[in-house]
Amino acid sequence: MCKASRVIVSIAVLLSLVFTPAGAAQDSFIDQRQQQIEEKRQEIAQRQLEQEQLQREALFAIRELDVTDAQIEEVDARLREVNSWIAAAETRLGSVQLAQAAAHTRVVDAQERAVDLDEEIAAIRMQLQGQVVQIYLDLVYKPNFLLEDGDPNRLARRQFYVEELGAGAQALIDRLRRVLDDQHAAVQQAEQAQAEIAQAQADIAEALDELSELREAQEKLQEEWDRKRSELLVQIEVEAQVQADIENEISGLTQAISAIEDEIERERERIRLEEERRRREAELARLAELERQRQADLARLAEQERQGQFDDIEIPAPPEFFRPVTSKAGSGFGNRIHPIFGTVRFHSGLDFADNMGDPIFAAASGTVTEARYREGYGNTIQIDHGGGWSTLYAHLSQFNVSPGNRVEIGQTIGLVGSTGWSTGPHLHFEVRYRGSPRDPAKYIDL
pTM value? Predict the structure, then answer.
């Protein structure tokens, strides 16, 4: 056994020398890929910052446009107000113009009546001239003397002349006064109407000037609004394209990261499988050496028995058993509650919970003695390893060997299943000596 140990140590040393550089190269590969992922994530963060800046610029431009739009609305409101004032002024101007025309008409009428009255007064004067020549001498120098108010004796003299002239002349004089008063009033009304027309025209002119200024301001604001709107539309279109480009870049970078992560995962899986393969190869090499030693011991014992040397015959050692599956062990050897029948029954092996279709390996080299369906066990394989030792594999979904086949340790002999009395896919594994079940946990590394 010491020789076997030395062989195992030598194999381990050789494996470490062979595989250490490969492991370092694999670590370097993963480090490089992770560095690439970090660089792409930083690039994504930079693109996202650019995207946020574009969004802020777009919001600022929209706010500016809103302010300009509000200014245009304010000018529009002022224009509507001034237009109302102008409409009212124009209505008032129309009324004043009508009044002016009426006043002009009255003035003309009064002037015509005054002319008629002047002729009538002249006739009256001619009639009275012969009667009161001396009295009307003053009329030659002051034709309107009776109508003046500066003489302090006006009332007395008027009374005298009225009495002298008689009621008819007085009626003519009173009529002339009324006509002159009407004429004077009409002229004042016409002048007042003309002043109102002039004021209304001035108000309208002022309102029109203000309206013109407001319209000019509105046009400028509208031009500014149209310009900003055009610029904003172009900016929005450019920013939308830039954002689309950034999103495409981010999507591409994300896909690249995903691809690198997949590559890293595949590399890690390859490393794991490679390490598992190396471990299994090392284990198989170790077990093969032990099996060679066991076979040599069996041959030596057989030679001793053939030569009749019975005193020092040793009990054959069991083979070094290899784990039949890669999963962890579950229900162990001994009495237990049966998962189907619910009663206490002896469990003659060790269960390994595994996935349907996973491979099952020969625990040691030997010859297949059974590959068939058995009640309870389902699809079952038995392998004879010599020296009275054998192993059993139950509940398989598929056979990869047939009775009489020679199998080597670690060879795939079937696939995990759930045939027979089973509650799910697993392997029931037994180790037997001369047909008697032994606890597999004593013979394999769990």
Answer: 0.36
